[in-house]
């Protein structure tokens, strides 16, 4: 998969949901995970994080939005049901991104929404569980950023095998003087 991504959640209140999100982030190849203003010690999620994600990807715990630091060039993508948000199936994922979800029974804070570079929504009739929402966003990123064979035209057929990657020759760019 191209690029990198991190995943996080604001004001999460249920350790099981955090563990599920961290396990999904680990499974989908996230580079880091973060919490923002969590209402419990985020490091206590071992019951639902059966992959021990915190041993495989960094966990950043920020007590306030002012503390949050993302890598240079990393775009912050809020996941929220708003009128202005882009539908996930139509969204072009940034090469370097950190996705953030809101709390279980609420929305991203207005301050965090203002800090987001982009906002995306999952086109559902109503909000889904935060763990499900996170997994859907990560799966969509994997589909759009990964290298997979195209879907067959007819249901039930196997996809054509993906052709081998061909490395091109060197690219020489020259600067024109005007």
List keywords for this structure.
178 residues; alpha/beta; Alpha/beta knot; seven-stranded parallel beta sheet; 3 helices; 7 strands; globular
How is this structure best described in words?
The protein is an alpha/beta fold and 178 residues long. It has one domain: Alpha/beta knot. Helix content is 20%, strand content 19%. The protein has helices spanning 15-27, 110-115, 130-145, and strands spanning 4-10, 32-36, 59-62, 75-79, 86-87, 96-101, 118-121. A 7-stranded parallel β-sheet has the order 3-2-1-6-4-7-5. Helix 1 (15-27) links the parallel strand 1 (4-10) and strand 2 (32-36). The radius of gyration is 19 Å and the shape is globular.
Structural class: alpha/beta
Shape: globular
Strand order of the largest sheet: 3-2-1-6-4-7-5
- Top-tier CATH class: Alpha Beta
Count every beta strand, where a strand is a DSSP E run of 2 or more residues. 7
Indicate the CATH architecture.
Answer: 3-Layer(aba) Sandwich
Stated plainly, the CATH topology is called Alpha/beta knot
Approximate strand percentage: 15-25%
**Oligomerization state of this entry?**
single chain
Radius of gyration: 19 Å
Largest sheet: 7 strands, parallel
Question: How many domains, as an integer?
Answer: 1
Q: In angstroms, what separates the terminal alpha carbons?
A: 39 Å
Average the pLDDT over all residues and give the rounded result: 90
Helix content percent band: 10-25%
Low-confidence stretches: none
User: What would CATH call the homologous superfamily?
Assistant: SPOUT methyltransferase, trefoil knot domain
Question: Count of helices?
Answer: 3
Secondary-structure element pattern, one letter each: EHEEEEEHEH
